[in-house]
From TrEMBL, chain A:
Residues 33-368 form the FAD/NAD(P)-binding domain. Residues 388-499 form the Pyridine nucleotide-disulphide oxidoreductase dimerisation domain. Its cofactor is FAD. This is thioredoxin-disulfide reductase (NADPH). Keywords: Disulfide bond, FAD, Flavoprotein, NADP, Oxidoreductase, Redox-active center, Selenocysteine. Its EC number is 1.8.1.9.
UniProtKB/TrEMBL annotation, chain B:
Gene3D superfamilies: 3.30.390.30, FAD/NAD(P)-binding domain, Glutaredoxin. It is an enzyme of class 1 (oxidoreductase). Coiled coil: none annotated. The keyword Nuclease does not apply. It comes from the Eukaryota. It comes from Equus przewalskii. Residues 40-101 form the Glutaredoxin domain. Residues 129-466 form the FAD/NAD(P)-binding domain. The keyword RNA-binding does not apply. This is thioredoxin-disulfide reductase (NADPH). Belongs to the class-I pyridine nucleotide-disulfide oxidoreductase family. Its EC number is 1.8.1.9. Keywords: Disulfide bond, FAD, Flavoprotein, NADP, Oxidoreductase, Redox-active center, Selenocysteine. Its cofactor is FAD.
Amino acid sequence: MAAALRAPGVRFQWRIRAAAGGARGAAAGRQGYDLLVIGGGSGGLACAKEAAQLGKKVAVVDYVEPSPRGTRWGLGGTCVNVGCIPKKLMHQAALLGGMIRDAPHYGWEVPPLVPHDWRKMAEAVQNHVKSLNWGHRVQLQDRKVKYFNIKASFVNEHMVCGVTKDGKETLLSAEHIVIATGGRPRYPTHIEGALEYGITSDDIFWLKESPGKTLVVGASYVALECAGFLTGLGLDATVMVRSIPLRGFDQQMSSLVTEYMASHGTRFLRGCTPSRVGRLPDGQLQVTWEDLASGKKDVGTFDTVLWAIGRVPETRSLHLENAGVNTHPNSQKILVDAGEATSVPHIYAIGDVAEGRPELTPPAVMAGKLLARRLCGQSSDLMDYDNVPTTVFTPLEYGCVGLSEEEAVARHGEEHVEVYHAYYKPLEFTVAERDASQCYIKMVCLREPPQLVLGLHFLGPNAGEVTQGFALGIKCGASYAQVMRTLGIHPTCAEEVAKLRITKRSGLDPTVTGC
Amino acid sequence: MSSPPGRRARLSSPGTGRSSSETREELRRRLLGLIEGNRVMIFSKSYCPHSTRVKELFSSLGVECHILELDQVDDGASVQEVLSEITNQRTVPNIFVNKVHMGGCEQTFQAHQSGVLEKLLQGDSAYDYDLIVIGGGSGGLACAQEAAVLGKKVMVLDFVLPSPQGTSWGLGGTCVNVGCIPKKLMHQAALLGQALIDSRKFGWEYNQQVKHNWETMTEAIQNHIGSLNWGYRLSLREKAVAYVNSYGEFVEHHKIKATNRKGQETCYTAAKFVIATGERPRYLGIQGDKEYCITSDDLFSLPYCPGKTLVVGASYVALECAGFLAGLGLDVTVMVRSILLRGFDQEMAEKVGSYMEQHGVKFLRKFVPVMIQQLEKGSPGKLRVVAESTEGPGAVEGVYNTVLLAIGRDSCTRKIGLEKIGVKINEKSGKIPVNDVEQTNVPYVYAIGDILEGKLELTPVAIQAGKLLARRLFGGRLEKCDYINVPTTVFTPLEYGCCGLSEEKAIEVHKKENLEVYHTLFWPLEWTVAGRDNNTCYAKIICNKFDNERVVGFHILGPNAGEVTQGFAAAMKCGLTKQLLDDTIGIHPTCGEVFTTLEITKASGLDITQKGC
């Protein structure tokens, strides 16, 4: 691959010279744009559409480098193709499996063992994703945004060269350039067979056949979400965790998330790291791993090995050095200021590729829109990256906004933080005889009245729906007192948030009794 | 004992009715202050011989009294009026000992003879209880428990009069037994039916025909309710609240008669009372209704599947019941006299109705039943219903297995002896008017929950009101129940959550030109693969343009509407504006995130159907 990349690099040298010579032509010609967006994911498309609506001449270039397994997809980026959308749909499929098991308790005469057909689900999910790809194309067309399915790299600070699948080149120049190329799953570099036999989240949603018995390596939210829905669909899924699950999230919540998964059939191998993946004669994969504490080696066989150990930004093939755009030496992400500008003032970066930004669709969308409005002189509003709410779609969903308990204590000191918490039982769980041991809510507040809410953590069904409104409350500067003055909606899970009375400090039992 | 007319005139002179009612409220507070603040408080007239006797009695006991001579103060006549409102006693002397109303001269001497006066003077309670709560529903129980936690001696009287069909239930009131809890569980059963249909699209494989068994569901739900009833009993016991399963009826001031199932009567006295008797379903008052129809009191524990059902009414109870019955596969018709979901946003109400209609519920609009006749006995039997058009001549008739009445609810306030102690009720509605601290016109009697006039009939409201009331009465707290921006959800097949004003009400309060309405249709991600209706779920906010686009009304029609609405209600408490909505980042992919990207105003008339994503 490295060799293949070198050749176009040589051509760029020539192109730069050629472009410099014909600068006037490029600026006045067909290929000159007010705004060029590299990357047709959530952030890039939002930015492009907004700018076009505000009257700018805009182009989007997007190109999906096939995964090492050969998986490729259409316009829309990670979220639509290999992220939020297919994962939530497969999560929904798994939840429906749970509902089928609930149904007999509610009087539905369902057969005891209902099998799941991966192919049917995958096809339905993939068809939906394809319809979204198409929708994005149509939207660009409607708003007169020029779309190029080419792989872009910088020629100079105003010019980008794009190469099609067949190797045809196009030169595009623009006054402003937005980099929104996102990230791709990381493969481990020192594990034999990892690249050869392993898949990632880039592949799992596009598998035609069931992945079968699966080893998920990693404990990021991607890892836990995938392991969660695979288990829910009836597959044997194991998660191999090197250190802690859901790093960066509240750790008490994280352990409840994994506790619930473990009690619902997902296996966990903790403190372990894989050392080798090989293929057995029968086609199964043999994985060797090491227990970090004891140093003991162990072996297991799986049908699929899924790497979910992190993501790398898509900056390597952009030739950022040709434009003078600086990246972070460790993360390789693009350094940006509060206005999303890179080290080159008219080049910007938004979304997962930008250093220090949350790797989430909605902030990328909003950042893209706001950037477009600033570029078009419509407003000067900057993106506010504080208090971004999010939800992890594990079997028991985890929604949060604001600070984790650890972070709140680190920032304000334990004596200034008050944590209200409660376990609760969703009404729907009672008749279905479901275990609610991990349904838990925690509100992290400042201790001084009026006890400003710093963070809210909700573990339970529909956590995303529950969290959204409270995220607004926190945005409005809600205090504990204000949340308590809010009357509940009965009977919901969300009303439990408005009923939090017990502080961690009190040491009282936070288990809910009665109603 | 009347006052000189000149003084009366001067007192009522400060202009408008509103300001005089404010003055009155102030006076009331001042009098209550005197009553609370003095060991013995006597309202008297300097020339009244009965007053003199009472003063002499206390002086002979060596007890210091605070005396207000009504004939020697400017506002004596008003004092007398307000006192009569507080105590239901017009005459002087009017005596209070340790905050307890003794009555007049005669009653005070009687109390002296029986020893009650001495007990009261010593600060001992003259009554069996500090608080008796009538009604063991959500509000009553919350109030009783909170008072008990604050160290008071509390009794709860709860007694369920069987419905005309003979249904009765345990402790916990409407919500637990015949309201929120069973209805949400039956709604959940219906949603699971939909989930079963969806699940095939998501790859789950089984026989196309899945039957529903009413008995299995009902038994499971009733078991859960049984455990809740038991939980309440336990919780009362733990908090040392006396629970008596008897029907309470006031017999005289501070005294209530409790009649148990066997007809045995016991009387209890208390310093304070809270009425929390709630409501029961209304009947039509037509031939055959009580004999053959059921109500929500009966439905949730019905031992047999109701079969083909006619639901009469268009309240949220009616639509919720019709919705889940249809979701369980039954043939359901709703007979509506006029509009759906009166009091709710009518655009939303119509959308709720049209979704139900698209999913198999039949609506018979502008008809009212005039006769119910039994054709066949059985479980269920067969009933013939004759209905007349509300728009002129024309009648329809139909045959149903079950007729469920859900035309409204009546307050349980007319048979609890309120007239004996002078607690006023609204004669028409049966509701009890209270002031902003839930106090009735008889000062030691309070009321909470569904029986309050002009307040919301919701469990969390009653619980909050009950708790705060107990804290104010016994915990030295001042916080009042805030009845503004109470969120609620209607658990129809497509759930409807709202908080704040309906569009109609907002226009009435703020005027149409001052409002901006943002709205959109949306398609939940889970519905896409399931192939369910696009452009059906709907979100709407109503903003006050001249108050920073503050959100005054929030409405959502979609799955999990309750879960979505709750947090937004909290945000509305904190002064939610459109700008803050726009600044908040969505959670992807959820339904709730739709509110962070609302762009189209209703006034613009732009298309809100969703084509792409």
